């Protein structure tokens, strides 16, 4: 127990770093994911090609490699940002590919006739997607999006290897101070459990309120 009580501030700082990474990267992932899903079903071929390329590249690229590309690659092009922002970009972009596919699967559950009816009434593609298709698709993809964001929270542990303050990185300092590595990881695991259970609880509420009845 003294591992936690003696280093409560370190654990708190790491937990806060993980929460911030998770929140900011989740917002970016959701925004990009919905946008790429719209691109993938757009009537414009170039947008469909861009969305497909985005998903294909990011889903098949290891997250650690993407971190290296963002943290080490972007500065070579004159992009100088805090390491935490680099981590948010890497996590958000990577996760957006999975959000995109979840949303696209939800879009495919909406009957085609509803889109055709909307177009027959003179609605544009943007209006049809925003007011008819996406609201219905979202209801069916709440559980997979929740699971994807839980995975994002756990993936944020990689950021600690790139000078970003997060929960897993606290073990390095505590190990150097001579604390039990087993109990160090027990409290780290508990911290991640708190984050993931919170996300799960939020999406359980969303599913009960807006989810599709099975």
From TrEMBL:
It is found in: Cell membrane. It is a multi-pass membrane protein. Its main location: membrane. Residues 15-203 form the ABC transmembrane type-1 domain. The keyword Transmembrane helix applies. The keyword Membrane applies. Keywords: Amino-acid transport, Cell membrane, Membrane, Transmembrane, Transmembrane helix, Transport. PROSITE patterns: ABC_TM1. CDD domains: TM_PBP2. Gene3D superfamilies: MetI-like. The chain crosses the membrane at residues 21-41, 53-72, 79-99, 181-206. InterPro entries: AA_ABC_transptr_permease_3TM, ArtM/GltK/GlnP/TcyL/YhdX-like, MetI-like, MetI-like_sf. NCBIfam families: HEQRo_perm_3TM (TIGR01726). Belongs to the binding-protein-dependent transport system permease family. HisMQ subfamily. This is Amino acid ABC transporter permease. It comes from Streptomyces luteireticuli.
């Amino acid at each position: 127990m003294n591992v936690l009580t003696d280093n409560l501030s370190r654990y708190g700082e790491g937990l806060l770093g993980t929460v911030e990474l998770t929140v900011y990267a989740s917002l970016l992932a959701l925004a990009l994911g919905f946008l790429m899903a719209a691109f993938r079903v757009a009537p414009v071929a170039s947008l469909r090609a861009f969305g497909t390329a985005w998903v294909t590249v990011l889903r098949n690229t290891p997250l650690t490699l993407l971190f290296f590309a963002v943290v080490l690659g972007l500065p070579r092009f004159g992009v100088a940002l805090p390491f935490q922002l680099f981590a948010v970009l890497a996590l958000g972009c990577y996760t957006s590919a999975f959000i995109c596919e979840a949303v696209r699967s939800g879009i495919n559950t909406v009957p085609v006739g509803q889109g055709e009816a909307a177009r027959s009434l003179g609605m544009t593609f943007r209006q049809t997607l925003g007011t008819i298709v996406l609201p219905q698709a979202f209801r069916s993809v709440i559980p997979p999006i929740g699971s994807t964001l839980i995975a994002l929270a756990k993936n944020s542990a990689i950021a600690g290897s790139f000078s970003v303050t997060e929960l897993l990185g606290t073990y390095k300092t505590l190990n150097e101070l001579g604390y039990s590595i087993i109990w160090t990881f027990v409290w780290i695991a508990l911290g991640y459990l708190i984050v993931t259970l919170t996300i799960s609880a939020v999406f359980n509420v969303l599913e009960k309120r807006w989810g599709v009845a099975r």
